[in-house]
Amino acid sequence: QLQVVESGGGLVQPGGSLRLSCTGSGFRPEYYGWGWFRQAPGKEREAVSWISNRGGATMYADSVKDRFTISRDDAKTTAYLQMNSLKPEDTAIYYCARAKGWFSGYWNSESEYDVWGQGTQVTVSS
């Protein structure tokens, strides 16, 4: 079955860290990039980060640059999002997605992704 499933969300204090995981099934991971998106209450979903197939390139939204790190482990068909120095404004539902095989490079466009997870809640609060 073709799917991706996120895990690792939770409640964390400001300044803390979390690592999100996204595990896929039903496809060969080495052919696809991965993306992370998030949606805060009352806001549109926004792109957070992307990693290319084989991990040679990464991209980050300005709001998370130098705090978040995306990585992948193809042996486990899993992508990760390490989130450090978390802020209350990072509170959102985080979604991972598989990039299309014919990825055009617009990493922050939802139309470039074809398999989405159900999301995991991240809450940053004291």
Helical stretch tally: 0
* SS-derived structural category: mainly beta
Number of strands: 11
Relative strand content: over 45%
Globular, elongated, flat, extended or rod-shaped: what is the shape?
globular
Rg, Å, rounded:
13 Å
Helix content range of the residues, please?
A: under 10%
- The secondary-structure element order is EEEEEEEEEEE
Uncertain runs with pLDDT below 50, 5 residues or more? none
**Average of pLDDT:** 96
Biggest sheet statistics: 7 strands, mixed
* Cα separation of the termini: 39 Å
How would you describe the overall organization of this protein?
The protein is mostly beta strands and 126 residues long. Helix content is 0%, strand content 48%. It has no helices and eleven strands. The strands form two sheets. Strands 2, 4, 5, 6, 9, 10 and 11 form a seven-stranded mixed β-sheet that branches. It has a four-stranded antiparallel β-sheet with strand order 1-3-8-7, with no helix packed on it. Strand 7 and strand 8 (78-83) form a beta hairpin. It is globular. The termini are far apart. The mean pLDDT is 96.
Provide a brief overview of the structure:
The protein has 126 residues and is an all-beta fold. Helix content is 0%, strand content 48%.
SSE arrangement:
Blueprint: E1 3-7, E2 10-12, E3 18-25, E4 34-39, E5 46-51, E6 58-60, E7 68-73, E8 78-83, E9 92-99, E10 113-116, E11 120-124
Parallel strand pairs: 2-11
Antiparallel strand pairs: 1-3, 3-8, 4-5, 4-9, 5-6, 7-8, 9-10, 9-11
